[in-house]
Write a structure and sequence with these properties.
This protein has 626 residues and is α/β, with parallel strands linked by helices. The protein is built from 25 helices and 23 strands. Helix 14 links the parallel strand 16 and strand 17. Helix 9 crosses helix 15, helix 16 packs across helix 17 and helix 17 crosses helix 18.
């Protein structure tokens, strides 16, 4: 037997986390940076005791909401291109359940986050303990079981010696680029404090080697044959291109063969906007250029993408009768989607090999790519100058597209990290944001999780403190979860929060009205005494004052000049900033030859809804079936 050391389970867990490293492309990186969390009775005297000790290098961040803690950890890992991560801890019951949404967000986006929810007593002696969920039909089921549905790996440590197999398996998943996401290891509160003689070998430095999956010659041969048979191929640049570091290889591939590419939300920013083959976003929130060419394409080369319904327009976008899909992905689950020819290998190595194997090939796109880009640039320039109608009282308002244009074209540093995650802002940004510095576009749209934005901005700022981090968020998402603004103040981590206030959930209001339904339940209005409905006066909110109440600098803007002054003051500030920008409703961009399948009511007393259902059925008939 080897040497052992007697520790509590919580102490051993922390020492293990502190000694995890990854090696990728010859570079060794400390993998776990710190722990976000909120102490409750189910964690504070167990894992919390270990965190309070001075014998580790992990930094503890005091969150203000457990979901926010999870989003902050995800923002940190995402901005670090998955080469660094954080753990998140909570008490049992409500504290644990608050993290479930964040766990789902991490899993859908394939971002490594370790969730450590406290749990009920393994010994069951004080049951039911405070905040314990009791289910008479299954006494083993606790609040932590809710994480099973949203975790890539789930475990519960019911004895201190179980920690060893649990953590080895946890990091097997966290460090696997194809499998990563939320990992949950539930920690019963009594077991956290129980002692065990842990092998020193378990606690020693451990390096996880991130190996690139090499494409085989036969895989490359099949892909090259598909490419040579195509006249108008088109690439989808997904998040896997970014995480693989394959931007240069994709540029070379598209340049060599005269192939355009459209960007997903996760892939946007891997290659700069002015690349001659970059058509900007693709799909339901994509550009006119990408969507038009996608309809003509006879080969879709899907690189590192989940092929979600927004990217494919609910499998409707690719309308060439003989179109084929080549799925280049390290995750076989994604490579097989839409009946694609799977090429399960690393994006960087695959694109380089395919460029060599198909030498001499050239697409038949001709001048179409350049013409489509020119037309789209004119449209974006128009949106960037768009004027908005004034408020009902005559006071000026900005259009949402104009705000993005001012920030993108004139006001922000070109290397500022811009971040968002839900509502209509990601739609507009995927279409019109011109990325001028690599890896500065940070969007959570795999889960479209409202409330991600402010917390994730804090995580991104912790990852790269030397960069300006600017979160652009709608008033709806801001009100859902912005409490980590207080953590940013506490940590002296300056983030700039630009709140676009159009007084409602207007992204969903647009969807509602597009399907023939009257405006209902999405505009921020008081309840009318006459009708009893939410159709009274608009609710007025001062988000600058809200920011000031947390300790941030509060600023306001209603005109381009005021926005310029506010941004200049924000950039000069040393503390977090909230800029309250009043925007006119319905001034976001519109769809550009895209379509999205939604569950429109097939029976209704409203003739507009009936018509919308007929129109929906007609488009459904054009979509691929699998």
């Amino acid at each position: 037997m080897g040497e052992t050391v007697r520790l509590t389970m919580g102490q051993a867990l922390l020492k293990f986390l502190d000694n995890q490293y990854i090696e990728a492309d010859g570079e060794e990186i400390k993998f776990v940076h710190g722990v976000f969390g909120i102490f409750g009775h189910g964690v504070v005297v167990g894992l919390g005791e270990a965190l309070a000790a001075k014998d580790h290098t992990l930094r503890f961040y005091q969150a203000k909401n457990e979901q926010g803690a999870g989003h902050a950890a995800m923002g940190f890992a995402k901005q670090s291109n998955r080469r660094r991560m954080m753990a998140v801890c909570s008490s049992i019951g409500p504290g644990a359940l608050n993290m479930v949404t964040a766990a789902g967000t991490a899993t859908v986006n394939r971002i490594p986050v370790l969730f450590l929810p406290g749990d009920a007593f393994a010994c069951r002696q004080p049951d039911p303990v405070l905040q314990q969920v009791e289910l008479p039909q299954d006494y083993t089921n606790t609040a932590s079981d809710a994480f099973r549905a949203v975790s890539r790996y789930w475990d519960r440590v019911q004895r201190p010696e179980q920690l060893m197999s649990a953590m080895i398996n946890a990091f097997r998943v966290l460090t696997d680029p194809a499998e990563t996401g939320a990992v949950t290891v539930a920690l019963p509160q009594d077991v956290q404090g129980e002692a065990y003689d842990y092998p020193v070998e378990f606690l020693a430095k451990r390096v996880h080697h991130i190996e690139r999956r090499i494409p085989t010659p036969t895989q490359i041969g099949r892909a090259a044959a598909m490419l040579r048979a195509a006249k108008k191929p088109l690439v989808i640049c997904g998040g896997g291109v970014r995480f693989s570091g394959a931007g240069k290889e994709l540029e070379a591939f598209c340049g060599a063969f005269h192939i355009p590419f459209g960007e997903t939300q996760a892939g946007k920013g891997t290659i700069l906007w002015d690349n001659p083959y970059n058509l900007s976003g693709i799909g339901n929130t994509g550009s006119l250029a990408a969507n038009r060419l996608a309809k003509e394409a006879d080969l879709i080369i899907a690189v590192g993408t989940r092929l979600g319904d927004f990217t494919t327009c609910s499998k409707w976008l690719f309308q060439h009768p003989a179109v084929r899909i080549l799925g280049i992905n390290i995750a076989s689950f994604d490579a097989y989607k839409m009946n694609g020819e799977p090429l399960i290998a690393d994006a960087k190595l695959t694109l380089a090999a395919l460029t060599g194997a198909a030498a001499g090939y050239k697409s038949a796109w001709g001048n179409t790519i350049a013409a489509a880009r020119r037309e789209w640039e004119v449209e974006v320039d128009r949106l960037y100058r768009e004027e908005a109608p004034p408020a009902p009282d005559g006071s000026p308002l900005l259009s949402q597209a104009r705000v993005l244009g001012e920030l993108n074209d004139r006001l922000l540093p070109k290397d500022a990290v811009v971040l968002s995650g839900s509502g209509s802002i990601p739609s507009d940004m995927q279409r019109v944001w011109r990325v001028r510095s690599q890896d500065t576009y940070h969007m959570e749209y795999g889960f479209s999780c409202m409330g991600y934005e402010v917390a994730a901005a804090l995580g991104a700022k912790i990852a790269f403190p030397e960069k300006e981090v600017v979160v652009i968020v709608g008033d709806g998402a801001y009100t859902m979860l912005h409490t980590e603004l207080l953590t940013a103040v506490q940590e002296r981590q300056k983030i700039i929060v630009v709140v676009l206030d159009n007084a409602g959930f207007h992204c969903i209001d647009n969807l509602q009205h597009s399907q023939g339904i009257e405006h209902f339940g999405n505009e921020w209005k008081t309840r009318s005494e006459a009708s009893g409905l939410l159709e009274g006066e608009p609710v007025q909110v001062d988000y600058a004052k809200n920011g000031e109440s947390w300790g941030a600098l509060g600023l306001r803007a209603r005109t381009p000049g005021e926005l310029e002054t506010a941004v200049q003051e924000a950039l000069a500030s040393k503390r977090p900033v909230v800029i309250d920008v009043k925007t006119s409703a319905k001034t976001m961009t519109r769809g550009y030859e895209a379509w999205w399948r939604v569950g429109t009511a097939q029976v209704s007393s409203n003739p507009e809804v009936v018509k919308a259902a007929r129109d929906m059925a007609a488009e459904v008939a054009k979509a691929r079936k699998f």
